[in-house]
From TrEMBL:
The NACHT domain, residue ranges: 145-279
Matches recorded under PANTHER family: NACHT, LRR AND CARD DOMAINS-CONTAINING
Coiled coil ranges: 666-700
Repressor recorded as keyword: no
Keyword terms, alphabetized: Coiled coil, Leucine-rich repeat, Repeat
Name of this chain's protein: NACHT domain-containing protein
Origin: domain of life: Eukaryota
PROSITE patterns registered for this protein in UniProt: NACHT
Biological source species: Clavelina lepadiformis
SUPFAM superfamilies: P-loop containing nucleoside triphosphate hydrolases
Pfam families reported for this sequence: NACHT
Lineage of the organism: Eukaryota, Metazoa, Chordata, Tunicata, Ascidiacea
Length: 701
């Protein structure tokens, strides 16, 4: 049998030139991964043959295995380079890893079928199923198991799996890494053909025979990483029959038998996927352990950011918006933010909010590459807006090929839509869509949400918009889309807005302020009655503040501030994406507040500084009682506290607000207390500061 790949001579030569010092190069896979445009180039035929029944000697096996391990390492190096095609790479991509949690993947209702749309974002998906946080080393210590690694698109599953493979290779374990999207073959294959001849073509029968013989004898030394189960066009939902090593069967049967450990029983098998595809695995072929990839740590976020851009841009982003800093913790979003700050849209200005960011990204998309869509990218984007809205309305993130056809989009075109992200140190291309020939999803859920909002603002008829805002928009399901809609309609001060767009802005303004008034009043009632609804109402309130902040319209913020509760507790924890909207509304609050609690919010130094910068501009004595206990402040934040002392008229509670050198929370130290007391001595009002359970600092008044 033979497998036909369509590969351009130019692409083949470029990879061969790069690896001219070694013949151990997976030319086919390397070139296939460079760009979808090669699908229409010249043909290169790779012949597959059934493995001979002859055996090889142990020495032959070992020699061939050493050569295979070199081939595996060469393959990983090429794949790593193709992930980041730097035009002016000044330094290596740093080794950073997302936060990893072991989870209970198969508990009831853990993973929604077809990844039901969740507006709270992918990190909320497993929050009630987390068993423990683990480190990268925990995965390297695993042996003989079947492991799945799940994460949302854009979280870095493929890069993470390549780094795992490289680490295993450095431990002298034979690690074969295969992208399942590249193994969507219709014709039957043997296991040897799938794992060896497919990934490392062009070698002798003796080589393949010796390698496969060694693998069967040394299953405990093998690591198989199958990347992207969700991108395979076949389904593993049905149980496949048990087969032997030499059986020639469809690829799905080979993968299923690998999952059941019928092949290489003592090997370590790792499959990466978006969550829904793993959930579909029938019980006999389910992984023994499942890990979920989350965001990068803040330290890793900074390291990766600086690998793409300069320190000045990092400082600007860090200073201007905690919301953007939070988004940077996703590797794909980080690259989009850098690209959009360097090449902002003229209509948007600086990309300082998610709405402005994605508006710029969509402008960049219109100039990106697509080799098969017959019309302009503008026309395609309009179709994608309708498609995204219909999917979001129906609680879906997975889109079928039939739905694409109904939207008059040829499914064969979507994999050729490449968003080009440019940065000072390197450039990266990413596909707008991921998935198989029958199921698709946007490379990041936020693309779907922004396109949905764009349809509501620019494509939905006015009468339908009025009904949508009145009956649907303020439901939890539309939370993220709602922020984008507010950003698109309210952040229009520099544009001439007229006609339906102006009327939509007025309608949205009216209902947003109504919601703020209703939720604020209900929240205050819940505080007086000690109702259990208080936290849910507070969360809705902060989500509405985020909508106001997304629009950057001061007149709307002023109206929102009129309904600001006189007693308010911040969410626990106060996530980074909520800080900018809260601060934007707080700037316009003029009423007297009885109590404002920032306690137990896990605020870091940057978030606290952003909030403190607003509070210190308020009127003297405007806040009765302030609480900042149980946070993660740094010593420098004592200046923020000192700056707002004049604003507090009665009490400030601040024990265990700082992070000590040992990582544990601590009270203000002696130096910090001296600074506080010195400022209190200058106050013209009576104020008490509780710095621990028993110690109270007082003003001299």
């Amino acid at each position: 049998m033979s497998k036909i790949f369509k590969i351009s001579n130019k692409a083949v030569k470029s990879v061969m030139a790069e690896q001219s010092t070694s013949s151990n190069v997976n030319i086919t896979d390397a070139v296939l991964n460079q760009s979808p445009v090669i699908k229409y180039a010249e043909n290169v035929t790779i012949n597959y043959t059934q493995p001979p029944s002859t055996s090889s000697s142990d020495e032959d096996d070992r020699n061939s295995m050493r050569k295979l391990m070199k081939l595996c390492i060469s393959y990983l190096e090429i794949e790593g380079k193709l992930r980041f095609q730097g035009v002016s790479a000044k330094e290596e991509i740093p080794v950073v890893h997302p936060i990893i949690h072991e989870i209970n993947c198969y508990d009831k209702d853990t993973v929604p079928v077809d990844e039901r749309y969740e507006p709270k974002g992918p990190n909320e998906l497993f929050k009630n199923k987390i068993k423990k946080e683990v480190g990268f080393q925990n995965l390297l210590d695993q042996k003989g198991k079947f492991i799945s690694i799940v994460a949302s698109a854009g979280s870095g599953k493929t890069v993470f799996s390549l780094r795992l493979a490289k680490a295993f290779s450095e431990l002298q374990r034979l690690c074969i890494h295969m992208k399942l999207m590249d193994a969507n073959y219709e014709q039957p294959l043997t296991l040897r053909q799938l794992l060896l001849e497919n990934i490392f073509p062009g070698h002798s029968e003796e080589f393949y025979t010796a390698c496969f013989s060694w693998m069967q004898k040394n299953t405990d030394k093998i690591v198989l990483i199958l990347d992207g189960l969700d991108q395979a066009q076949y389904s593993l939902e049905k149980i496949s029959p048990k087969i032997n090593y030499n059986a020639c069967v469809p690829v799905k049967d080979l993968v299923f038998n690998l999952c059941r450990k019928h092949f290489f029983p003592n090997s370590l098998l790792i499959i990466t996927s978006r969550p829904h595809a793993v959930l579909y695995l029938p019980e006999p072929a389910r992984p023994q352990v499942t890990y979920a990839l989350g965001d990068l740590s803040l330290e890793d976020t900074e390291a990766l950011f600086l690998a793409f851009a300069d320190e000045d841009l990092w400082r600007k982003n860090k200073k201007s918006s905690n919301q953007m800093l939070s988004m940077c913790r996703n590797p794909l979003m980080l690259q989009m933010i850098i690209s959009s700050n360097i090449h902002p849209s003229e209509d948007i200005g600086d990309a300082s909010t998610p709405t402005r960011l994605f508006a710029t990204v969509m402008e960049n998309l219109k100039g990106s590459r697509n080799i098969r869509f017959p019309k302009t990218m503008d026309e395609l984007v309009l179709k994608l807006q309708v498609l995204a809205f219909d999917a979001t309305k129906n609680h879906k993130v997975v889109v079928t090929d039939e739905q694409l056809k109904d939207a008059e989009i040829d499914p064969t075109t979507v994999h050729d839509i490449i968003v080009q992200l440019h940065a000072p140190k390197r450039s990266v291309n990413c596909n707008l869509f991921e998935g198989s020939p029958t199921k698709f999803y946007f490379c990041h859920q936020t693309f779907q949400e922004h396109l949905t909002a764009s349809y509501v603002v620019y494509g939905m008829p006015l009468e339908e918009f009025q009904d949508f805002v009145e009956t649907s928009l303020f439901q939890e399901h539309w939370a993220v889309v709602r922020r984008f809609i507010c950003g698109l309609l309210f952040d229009l001060e520099s544009k001439a807005v007229s006609g339906d767009l102006q009327m939509k802005k007025e309608i949205l303004n009216k209902y947003l302020i109504q919601q703020l008034a209703i939720i604020s009043e209900k929240f205050m009632e819940s505080r007086q009655k000690y109702s259990d609804d208080g936290e849910a109402l507070r969360d809705k309130l902060f989500d509405l503040y985020a909508c106001v902040g997304e629009g950057k319209d001061s007149s709307i913020a002023t109206k929102a501030a009129e309904h600001f509760p006189t007693t308010l507790y911040l969410p626990q924890p106060m996530t980074l994406n909520l800080v900018p909207g809260f601060c934007f509304v707080m700037k316009h609050v003029t009423k007297q507040l009885d109590k404002l609690s920032l306690g137990s919010c896990s605020l870091d130094a940057n978030s606290f500084h952003e909030i403190a910068s607003v509070i210190k501009e308020m009127k003297p004595g405007q806040i009765g009682v302030m609480t900042i206990v149980d946070n993660d402040l740094q010593p420098s934040n004592i200046d923020d506290v000192i700056g707002w002392l004049k604003v507090v008229r009665d009490r400030l509670r601040m024990w265990e607000s700082f992070i000590g050198d040992d990582g544990w929370r601590r009270d203000a130290n002696q130096d910090e207390r001296s600074k506080l007391q010195s400022e209190l001595n200058n106050l013209q009002a009576r104020l008490e500061v509780y710095v621990d359970d028993v110690t109270i600092l007082r003003s001299q008044k």
